[in-house]
From TrEMBL:
This is Beta-propeller fold lactonase family protein. Residues 146-168 are annotated as: Disordered. Residues 150-162 have a biased composition (Low complexity). InterPro entries: Cycloisomerase_2, Haem_d1_sf, Lactonase_7-beta_prop, WD40/YVTN_repeat-like_dom_sf. Gene3D superfamilies: YVTN repeat-like/Quinoprotein amine dehydrogenase (2.130.10.10).
Amino acid sequence: MTRFWLGGYGPAMDGQADGIGLLAGDEGREATTLAYRGAVAETPSPSWLAQHPSLDVVYAALEADAQVQAFARTGEAALSPLGDPVAVGTNVCHLAVAPNGAFLIASCYGDGRVVRIGLDAAGRVVPAHGKADAAAALRAALFGDEDPDAPAATPPGDGVAASDPHAAGADRVSHAHAAAFLPDGRIATTDLGFDLVRFWKQSANGLILDHEVVLPLGTGPRHMVVHPSGHLHVVTEYSCEVFTLAAGVDGTWRVVSSTLSSPIAEIGTDFPAELARSRDGQFLYTALRGSNTIATLRVRGGGDTLESVALADSGVDWPRHHLVHEGKMLVAGQRSDTVTLLDLDERTGAALGIRHEAQVPAPTHFLPVR
């Protein structure tokens, strides 16, 4: 049986989820059923989940509470809090755990903060201090901060969240949305509000801003996929595009191509959410909230070019997250309180139809149970 931990929105985020849930289904390409088994750990609005690379520990972004909490697996289908939650930034919406399990990166939509949080040997989150907060490093890089050792608990609304050299006016606000670990050890983060992809180097004291890639004004970079070819694909929430970035011989990243997620995507009506890839890297998928569809793109060349090939019904309302698993796709419908299981065409990669539907309260994220 295949199982998934489920993130969801609770009442504070206009949903009915009461914690991390469990979804179970048949294994293999012929899977036909899904069943929601209820909450396995009660916690408020765990909208994004991440797995420790070697320990049976799951991390939850508690979006409404501006906290990150670790949970240890205590049974076949049970999670229990591991230590106390750690405060991060407003509306923390994404977590990415370092491949060595030493720390995680929390991206905070509400105030634009990107926070590096240490993890101890047992997987517990360690309160950030020193230069652990990427927001402090960015503030120093942009504004010559006189106190580069400012603690990570600097209040929301400091310079990083309110100002940026690329801002066109006072109405632009920083919205950090995702982080990805790159093969060379650097970290990429998206800023949806400032239309930036930032690249960070790691140091003993935290993160150091390396450089930035500026996307066109108003595109809204949201989530990313690191492709086996070494390219970085970035989906934009406002312009419905996927930008492909590549690193030059000097390590500096740049945009090499951009493609509409679908030729019939409606800008201002459709808002892409997740970006996922097939296991072999031949296809990318993004969900368009609005038309509630799944767009399929084929990866061409050496990974530097994308081609839109199909658009299909997701079967849910407001597809917040989707995951390719064993040749099929799971889609989380945040507003319909449902999860669908879709068939995928092995040749074209396109979603073919809805195989099964399950009732799930305000689902926002899938994480396979290891």
